[in-house]
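The passage that follows is intended for readers who have already worked through the single-chain material. We present the inputs for a multi-component assembly, then the predicted structure in tokenized form, and finally a short commentary. You are encouraged to pause after the input and sketch how you expect the pieces to fit together before reading on.
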Amino acid sequence: MARSAIGRLFAGLRCLPVGNTQLQTQCSRWSSERTGVEASMFSHKPRDFSLPNPSWGEEMKRLYKHYNLQSEEAAGQGEDGEWWTRLPSYNRSLKYATGGVYLSKMIQSKARLFTRNIRDPGAAFEYVLFFRNDKQRCLCIFQAGHLLEGPPGHVHGGAIATMIDTVTGTHASLLSAPVMTANLNINYRSPIPLGSTVLIESTLDKEEGKKKFISCKVSSTDGSKLHTEATALFVSISVSHLLRG
Amino acid sequence: MARSAIGRLFAGLRCLPVGNTQLQTQCSRWSSERTGVEASMFSHKPRDFSLPNPSWGEEMKRLYKHYNLQSEEAAGQGEDGEWWTRLPSYNRSLKYATGGVYLSKMIQSKARLFTRNIRDPGAAFEYVLFFRNDKQRCLCIFQAGHLLEGPPGHVHGGAIATMIDTVTGTHASLLSAPVMTANLNINYRSPIPLGSTVLIESTLDKEEGKKKFISCKVSSTDGSKLHTEATALFVSISVSHLLRG
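Having made your guess, compare it with the prediction:
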């Protein structure tokens, strides 16, 4: 059963154009960023949610252009330059076994990545992730939509936690084999108004065996206001661990 | 400006049938549970998302009946008995000012509580919250829909954080004036399969001035598996603090 499930897990999985090409790394990205699945897995070409759309405000577009330009400019500079690579982002994951039994077909076919589960542009999480070529830092431009409300007019603490988990988890999975979030410790400093654009930056603090310690901060785009700061711990796991649930 | 905003904030606000009737407490619940706004605020009667619907599985229905029965049975027992009260849950918050300026009218009119932003029953967060009459504990029955995916077949760490913030934040707001989440420290022990029902229990650990320390655990409904445990810190704030953003 486990072998069969692993076979299904890997069937059709192909590597991102960026990052490690080892099989271990291929299954390390299970958010859309983490899975890095390609269009060929789907019956039709999936939408890349990290590309600009009409809902993006001026600040979101400006920052996207800024980091994308650094990436494009660096293309001819080799691997020594400090440049950023954009990660594509889809809303589908893999058909998968859990806890030793397969999920119901209905759940399998309808499952969508939490941060990309609403197709209406601008309504919820609008974000794009970049990582630096030495993989010591990730950067996310995040525009918070009106469906993320917590305190009136402000982003829900859970939505902020979701973006922190997404950015740090993607960062950890770029570094090694499949990882699971073990701990998130989040300090909320200042609420984020709905509709605003913020920067989320993650930094690798240290690696100890299977553990990756990553810190993260959410700030205004001009750097003048710190909204949230956090630390995160991820642990590399085996595929069989995942299948056991 | 601030006075006007405060006036608008309180206009139409009425107290829940449960809890403190002071004005301070009225605005302390800004998730739908926290705001506790009544039908009269809206042009039509809002849907109470915490009531059973056809998407609820057997376990969700069984537990709802169990705690609801304890609540109903206790109705004649006076305030000394250990009984539970269900909290209604809507998907709209208040029109509000933020950061000294009003949100755009479009965002105001379209804003929805993050945990109730999808109307399709069973697709995302299905949950119902109860609190014990001494307000020392809250309990939430949570059924995780297919749109909450993180690791394939399992609930996103951010979705779990969202439910923990919701339960502990509602708990803190039952105890006192408006509160803000100051810290969430979450340890993820075991992943939660999509489609499953779990229990989220919060306990008041201590109160120190404006601070409320609450612990929380997410476990399987039979108590055999601990999925997640967390501590949360909430700080009482003034209305003017909220308005400053």
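Commentary: The first strand of chain A starts at residue 84 and ends at 87. The radius of gyration of chain A is 18 Å. How closely did your sketch match?
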